[in-house]
Sequence to fold (167 residues):
Amino acid sequence: MKLDIKNGQIVVYSAILGAAYTALGVAESALGMLNLLSPITDTPAGVPADILGGFAALVIGLAYLRGAIPLSRGSRESLGYILVGTFLSAIFGILYLLIVCADGLGALLALLEGEEWTWEWLTKGSAGPGLLRPEIWLFFASLPLAYLTWKNTKKIIQQPKNTGSYE
Fold:
């Protein structure tokens, strides 16, 4: 099977997201392990020191890469890996957004109790860098890939199958 334009776009997009998630996962896990040895007060470039979050990002990145490499060779079955990657990206991106919303609700409740309002919950919340957490922005970056992959998969499913019989 020749690689058509749509599959080429999906391959490139998936490879870029896969590399970004994999690099982020390795960096988060490494910083998390360093944080266990000697506590880190400020992480570089807003990357949180989170071992399990890094492992999740690494799994998402490997799912994207596992789908992109065979798809570049024409294997349409690998679209499933890309769909799983976008699904996992959505789960973790929405989860971190909900954590930021919970931090904002906590700041609002503190304001109603008479404490002073701060915007710190946006950048230093329960989930590390808050709204600046890279998984949130990579989730938004993965939405077009999810649309392209889903559209391409539906088109493949709707194609008539060649059963090889002569009717």
Summary: The chain has a mean pLDDT of 85. The CA atoms of residues 18 and 64 lie 5 Å apart. The radius of gyration is 20 Å.
